[in-house]
Structure formats: structure tokens, C-alpha cells
Specification:
Elements: H1 7-20, H2 28-33, E1 36-37, E2 44-45, E3 53-57, H3 58-64, H4 69-75, E4 80-82, E5 90-93, E6 96-97, E7 101-105, E8 108-109, E9 131-138, H5 142-145, E10 152-158, E11 170-180, E12 185-195, E13 199-210, E14 228-233, E15 236-241, E16 253-265, E17 270-281, E18 284-285, H6 287-290, E19 293-294, E20 297-298, E21 300-305, E22 309-319, E23 328-346, E24 351-372, E25 375-396, E26 402-404, E27 414-429, E28 432-448, E29 460-476, E30 482-493, H7 497-501, E31 504-507, E32 510-512, E33 521-534, E34 538-557, E35 565-568, E36 571-596, E37 601-616, E38 621-624, E39 632-641, E40 644-653, H8 663-666, E41 673-674, E42 680-681, E43 685-695, E44 700-707, E45 727-735
Parallel strand pairs: 7-10, 32-36
Antiparallel strand pairs: 1-2, 3-9, 4-5, 5-6, 7-8, 9-10, 11-12, 11-45, 12-13, 13-16, 14-15, 16-17, 17-22, 18-21, 19-20, 21-23, 22-23, 23-24, 24-25, 25-26, 25-27, 27-28, 28-29, 29-30, 30-33, 31-32, 33-34, 34-36, 35-36, 36-37, 37-38, 37-39, 39-40, 40-43, 41-42, 43-44, 44-45
InterPro entries: Beta-barrel_TonB, Beta-barrel_TonB_sf, Plug_dom, Plug_dom_sf, TonB-dep_rcpt-like
Main location: membrane
Subcellular location: Cell outer membrane
Length: about 725
Amino acid sequence: MTPWKNPALLLAGTALSISAAAQQKADTARTLDEIVISANRWEQNLNEVPNQVTRIEARDVLQNNPQTTADLLGQSGSVFIQKSQLGGGSPMIRGFATNRVLLVLDGVRLNNAIYRSGNLQNVLSVDPLSLREAEVIFGPGSLIYGSDAIGGVMDFHTLPARLSTDGKTLVSASGLARYSSANSEKTYHADVNVGGRKWSFLASATFSQFGDLRMGRSGGPDSYLRPEYIVRLRGTDSIVKNSDPLVQRFSGYEQANLLYKLRFRATEHLDLQYSFNYARTGNAPRYDRLIQYRNGRLRFAEWNYGPMLLQQHQLLLTHNRKNALYDEARYSVALQDYEESRIDRSYRSNNRNVQAETVKAIVSNVDLNKGIGRGQLFYGAEFVHNKVGSTGLQTHIGTGAQTPIGSRYPDGSTWTSSGLYASYKINVQPKLTLTGGLRYSFNTLNATFDTTFLKFPFRRAELRTGALTGNAGLVYRPAQGWQLNALVSTGYRMPNIDDIGKVFESTPGMLSVPNPGLRPEYAWNFEAGVVKSHADKYRFEVNAFYTLLDDAIVRRPFSLNGKDSLPFGGAMSRVEALQNVAKATVWGVQASAEWSFTRALSLRTHANWIQGKETDDAKNEQVPLRHAAPFYGSSFLRYRVGKLFTEVGAYYNSKIKAKDLPPSEQAKTDIYAKDADGKPYVPAWHTWNLRASYQFTKHIGLTAAWENIGDKRYRPYSSGIVAAGSNVVVSLRASL
């Protein structure tokens, strides 16, 4: 189905066409100058940056009421979100995802040595209600951020600890309570800032509880329903009928986020800050595993991600007194303590398996900038060290007896990265800005394998490798209201502990084993964009890109000790491993438009068309790329007058035919709809949504929404859980 056969998609196309045909008018350059972003760790004007950047502000969080940061990114219209379970959300950016896109929180990378190629839920570690703003920087960001920034960078900035500017103690606070009907969400948030002339303190806390998610009633195949589930009755697992198949038993979970900042302005030019980020989920049932069948019955009685815990301590020193080396400098040291686990038990089994992982990390950054002539030099250094702990334990749920089992990763393994970078931006003339830079990174990996449970033909894995990356871009502003961008950039990803050392069941009957012979993968990216805008009237942007990934690390058939199958989990499983055997190409067009019909009425729309291919080693041919999402986007008509804000619009996705579904997705028969030939495919879908907010007083506001008004039943591409059906969201916010 083409996008234009869907009325919601037609609305997007109409809006883009209107914006493209808009007449040229004056004053746009001033508007673009006022948009400030932090695409290279330092603030700069958007109209001097060749990258495509999507900016999300705190007011977007308050208006849209996302349950998690994954939902916040999805609401932007530029990022596709996959969910294996309700307690999840894996961003896909320009055909890349998981450990090929980078998460950054307050300037510190969150990606660590066990970020996997499978879907990730680590973006939940960022609390949307504690954000001042977020930026999605599309395309390779390895020049500034090093390994993993191939598809893009998600850069999150939390609430600042504000100082007093008038000599009086500054006290501000806000609180929020929210309820969502589709999963009985209850969220409570509070933040407070106390600031003097030199000292300030900020505290933020958010607690959320999510029940089982209800899917939509209309449309969508009956195979999405949850007709039965497993409960333990009188000491025995029993399969019982679900009284309401629309309710996805079991999918609920809990989450808590805390943020503390203590800031000291020692002098006019020296600022010190300590911050602490804490994020923890409860057990998050992995829904796509709980609906798997084996031999005609549900396979797992339990499959949970155990509590995911992130604790990050950061010391930040900022010095802004000009000298021979820099105009401004930032020194950051962060300590991270990360934990995750997997808990599973098969139907009618008394043995519960637990694999637990920890990562102790230190991340140190030095970032400086210096004005040189008409240009600006940005340069710095980074050091990252990760140490991985990994254990496996099997517990008999009747007797409590415990037995060691194989761990997911080699225990005690380490991963390090060191890098130096420099980038230069110069305004050659008022209409032309040039940028360029280089980075050299050196990475090491050390792992020792335990052969107790699987007889590996190797004992150690070591990597010592470097990578040179760079970019060159230009921004040309031929006339007021016009901006033309072009960029060539490179990125790389160093194999991590998950790539080289993991043992796990990727899909039923497929066992992934270590491969110590992996090499880094390297990307080349070419993109061009055009922006046409008019102050307070419209803004239209189109970006086209092409990315080539060499030595792509992908999972392929493998053999261990000469065997292509091994016993695992009570059954024979085919052996596979990650290997540098593929070449991946991704290309596409991303477009957005904003049109103000009057001061009160406006239209905003986003459209994303992305295609990708990768080498299938078994067939030696190009096949669809796993993380290239179908055509997707959103369109919303907004009305704002006085204290009232309302919007109505749609989110939409196009169809993926069976022949266009990646081979790895075709194997996931439990989550996909079946076409007329019985083959898995992704149906097209769209939802209509209504949202309104009203500010009763300066300090009290109410937001309400009716999402998925038609109660549509749909499952986004590659997702394990079916999306929420008709959902009423109400939140009350108070501030002082």
C-alpha cells in the first residue's frame, strides 16, 4: 500500500506540498539565528550546523505527556520506536538502532560494553519529566562522541540548578500527577530548586506504575489477542483462559527516577557542579517471549527483565575565562554503576534461570572551544573504561536449591576507548559556513571465557584497534528564508563485550555464541538538506541521506568445535555468531513542515521514508535491513489562544509486504500478522488523537488527551507488544 491511500498520510503530504509552494518572504535568517542547539557539545546557531537536528523542549513533554522517554522520542515524528514489552522502547534512527545509536545524558555517554544489537530499553533510564530539552542529531556523530554514533545521537539535557540573579534566595518548585486509562498508569513527579548567588540545589523525583496494557478493539488480526496465559496453581503451572483477550497479561511494570544537582559558582569565571542520576525499573515482563509457543502450548511461565538500575555520579567544572588555549573549557568525570538481569522459567519447569550483569564505568571528557579569526575551534579528549560482571544461577522454585549456570558474558571482561578530536567552523562570508574535523580513537577489549558449560575452542579475546573519523560540511544561506546544507561524515563502532562474548538464545532454536575475531564496522554518510522558512509563517525542511556501512557486524550461521548445533535450554539449537560479513546501505528522505495559518492556528507534520539493504551471508544477496522502519510520520493541527491549547491529528505507518520483511523478522512468527498466503507481514495503521491543555492560573494547569480515538488494534514494526488501544490521559501540574 502506498502512503497516499491512507487519509492520515494524505494529510501529511498535503501539508508538505502547501509548505513547498509557499511564497518567499523576509526575516527568516533572524528566526533561525534564535534557535540554539548543542550539536557539538557547545551551543551554536542552528543555521550554522549542516546536520539535521530535531529539538524537543520541556513544553513538548508537558503538552504530549509521554509515559517514557522512548514515547517522547516517538512523538517527535522523526524517530521510530520498537517495543518488545511495555517496559521498553528501542529508538530506530535512519535505519540504525540499539548499539549503533548513542545515548548521551548531560554530556556523558550511556552506551556501555554490553549494549547489544538486539532491541534495547536503556532509554528508559532518562526521565522525560526532568528534561530541560533533548536533541536528536541525525547521522554519524563519531567525530565528537566516538564509537556507536553511526545512525545518530540522542542528547538529553536535564533541568539546570539555577542561581539567584537579584541577591534574594531563588525558590521554585513544580509537581505533576498523571493517569492513563490504557494501562492504568499512575505517575507522580516533583522538582524543587533553591538558589543563592553562589550556591544552588536541585532535586527531581518521578515515580510511575503501569498496569497491563489494553490493546485496541477494531482492526488488526485476532492473532494479536492474548487468549490465554500461564499462572501457578497449587504448585503447578496451568494455562488459563484470559477473561479479556484485549488485556496483555502480563505486561505492567514500575519505574523510579531521581535527579540531584549541587552547584557552586566559585568565581565569575569558574562554575562547579555535582549531579547524581538514579533510574530503576522493577521487573519488566518481556511480553514477546511470554506469547511464544512451542509444541502447541505457551513456552515460558516466566520471562522478565530484572530491575534495570543506573546510578551516575558526575563532577563538572566549567571555566570561561579566555586565555591562549581556550575561551571556555569543560571538564567532566562521571562514574556509572549499571545493573540488569534476565529471569526465565519454562512451562512446567521447577528451575528458574537468572543471568545478572553489572557494568562499572568511568567516563572522562575535556571539551574546549577557542575563537580563531572568523572561526571557532572545538577540540577535546575522552576516556571511557568499562568493567563487566556477569553471573548465571539456576534456582529450584520448590526446594530453593541453587546451581551455577553459564553466564551471558565473560565475567571480569573490560572495554576501553580513548579519543582526541578537533573541529573547526568558519563563517567564510555572511552567507556561507564551513565545518570540518577529525577524531582518532583507540579501543581495547579483554575477555576470558569460562569453558565449564560450553567448551569453547578459545580461552581469550583481545582487541587493540584504532579508528580515524571525520566530517566536512557546509551551510549556504543564499537569501533570507533559505538554507542549504551538505555534509560528508564517517562513523565507526568498536565491537564490545556483547558482540564478542555473548551466549544467548536469539530466537527459539537459535543459539548465539562468542566470536573473538570481530573487527570494527565503519560507516560513510552523505546527506543534503534544504530549509525554507518565514518568521511566524512557516518552516519547511527536507533532508536526503545515503549511508554505507562496511564490515557490518551481523548474526550469521556459525560452527563451534566443528558443530553447527548444540543442546541448549532442553533442545538442540542451531549455532550462530556475530560476524563482519555484511555490507549495509541505508538511504532515505526525512521531511517536516510547520505552517501558521493565523497566530492561533497552525499545522505541523513529519514524514520519514527510509530504505535499507544488507548482505545475507547464507544466500549471498542483499536483503531488507532489519532496522529500516516502514514509512512513518505524524500530522497535527494546533490551536492556541490565551490559556487554551488544543491539537488534533494522526500518527501513521505504511505496510511492509512479506517479501520486503527482513529474514530475521520473518522468523518471529509469534508477533507478525499473516497475509493471504500465510506469510508474516506488517499491516499499515494510523491513529487519530486529540489533546488539550488549559492554564487555570499562573501556577496550575491541566492537560487531557484522547489517544487512538478509533480504538485501533495495531503492532508497530518489529514490536512484541501490541500498542495501546483507546487511551484517556489526564495530568494536573502545579508550580511556584
